[in-house]
Amino acid sequence: MPVVDLTVDRNLLCPNFDGYKLSFDAVPVLRQGFDRDPLKLEPHLNQYSLLHVELFAKHNLLFSDPWARHNSYYMNKAHQLVLCSYDEQHGQPRAQRVVYTMRREDHGDGYQHLVGDYNYTLRFISEKYCVVCDGMLTYHLLETGDRRRDTSWQLVTRSPVTSDMEQRGFVLYDARLDMVQERKQISLIGGHVRRREAATPQQADVHVMQLIWSRWTLDSLPEAGWSYNLCEQLETPGSIYYCAFEPRAESLIVCSNGQLQTRAQRDAELNAEQEQEQLEEQVMEEGQDEEEEGQETAEQPPEPERLPIPNLEEPIEECDFPLGSSDDDIKMVRFNLSTSGITHTIFLGAIPPLFATSLRAGYPAAFVTRQGVDASVWLQLYQPSKPGEWGVRHEGNLHAFGYVQASKQQRKFIDCCPQLEYAVISESYRHLFIYKPRYDSAGGLRNRNGPQVVIGKQNLVTLDDDLGEVLGLVTATNVITVLTEHAVLYLQV
Q1: Which residue pairs, CB below 8 angstroms and at least 24 apart, start in 418-426?
Q2: Alpha-carbon distance 319 to 342, whole Å?
Q3: Fewest CB atoms within 10 Å of the CB: 128, 238, 331, 483?
Q4: What is the pTM of this model?
């Protein structure tokens, strides 16, 4: 299996960067109220696993439009999709506008949110289409028209994520529109946390993230409609740090600290574990019978003295390690659908990607990793003419940002603008940190026999107490849009 290396482009590094200087310049913050508060769902009492906590705590409830970066959307408590738009020419936010109201006909409980359902997820796939996952059971394909104008959105089709209605609660990780053999193809990857029963009585039940790969297809015939099909089901017991399709969606890129398996591979492994357990039980029973026969004819030896140390032959459990000391093997893998296997791997060690962000409309999401003290931004490299080759390219660098984000223990959202001119870290309450790496040449200071020293700029924005929790964050060229419990904020940077 090919191993892909993260090769840093030294031309993007700044060896004379000397950190960030705290700036006391005020950051203009424009506040805009709601007609209805944003919708935020909380986990159920039985959703106690780490995967559930990450799924609900890290969910960004403000959705950015890659084709119009100054437009963002959120779902309110009336299940209305609301547009938040910033007028860059006048430097003022436009009035909020409802662009679509979710249809919630009472056909059983499939259209009514229950405790434990996931939050809404929205992904734009082109200038005129987007996909909404209602967090319950269904995908909705919407035709938006020209989103730069006041157009009405229309429902094109909707489909259940899976035919198994016992699985409830889904999040949409990625969606992609491609033209394949003269027909439109929309690839979808959704996630659901489920409880997996133990294979043997000696094991414990675990929670796994189940990834459901599906597609909508539209033939070029005049009266053809969208057809929905399931492609593959994957699962991993680890956290999902990155999940995105490559161009043409023939492969899926997943970063996790757990092993990624298909359902067939998991079933085969389960059968092997059960057969191994049966064999071990049979051997133990035969050994006990032979031991009992030997004890009847031979004198029993004296009992050995108990040692003050545990039996080293017993396996060490995860709980025997101090918290955070066990080594997590974090990998980014490329899973190919046609071969139903992993074709490429990137080993990331124990540090997961810092965040993922959209740099260009229509391209797969970029991911950011820590390289020394810096944060490096990577984009997928894929050529349709060479489907067997895959790699990543160093697209940009956030100087010293890897060191900075590691010091922010209360961070919730991290993002950067498409031009990499600034990065932002948001806490759950009160504080946002803005970092501009290309700011100042330190007033002409130089290293001895070296180039001028470069210093970045750091701004601290303190939010009002009455705003409540930060629910979402998106970035654009000169503005950061922040969704809180009681208002939308526009930070002019």
Answers
A1: 418/69, 418/357, 418/358, 418/359, 418/360, 418/475, 418/477, 419/477, 420/377, 420/396, 421/477, 422/475, 422/493, 423/375, 423/398, 424/473, 424/475, 424/480, 426/470, 426/473, 426/482
A2: 30
A3: 128
A4: 0.85
Nearest-angstrom CA–CA distance, 101 and 78? 8
Residues 233 and 243: their CA atoms lie apart, in Å, by: 14
The helix or strand, by DSSP H or E, that contains position 406, with its residue range, turns out to be helix 401-406
Would you put residue 15 in left (φ > 0), alpha (ψ -120 to 50) or beta? alpha
Let me know if 346 is exposed, middle or buried by CB neighbors in 10 A (0-12, 13-18, 19+). buried
Cα angle at 219 between 215 and 220, to 5 degrees?
A: 145
Helix (H, G, I), strand (E, B) or coil at 305: coil
Strands 80-87 and 71-75 turn out to be antiparallel
Q: What is the pLDDT along the chain (493 residues), one digit of tens a residue?
A: 789 999 999 999 988 888 899 988 889 999 999 989 999 999 998 888 999 999 999 999 999 999 999 999 999 999 999 999 999 989 999 999 999 999 876 444 556 788 889 999 999 999 999 999 999 999 999 999 888 888 889 999 999 999 887 788 999 999 999 998 888 999 999 999 998 877 666 677 889 999 999 999 998 776 778 999 999 999 999 999 999 999 889 999 999 999 999 888 887 777 777 677 777 777 777 767 666 666 655 555 555 554 444 444 444 444 444 444 344 689 999 999 999 999 999 999 989 999 999 999 999 999 999 998 999 999 998 887 888 889 999 999 999 999 899 989 899 999 999 999 999 999 999 999 999 987 655 555 555 555 677 889 999 999 999 999 999 999 999 999 999 999 999 999 8
How far is it, in rounded angstroms, from Cα 382 to Cα 307?
A: 59
Q: Do 279 and 271 form a contact (C-beta atoms < 8 A)? A: no
Backbone angles phi, psi at 143, to 5 degrees: -100, 120
Burial of 154 (0-12, 13-18, 19+ CB in 10 A): exposed
> Which residue from 212, 78, 82 is spatially nearest to 139, judged by alpha carbons?
212
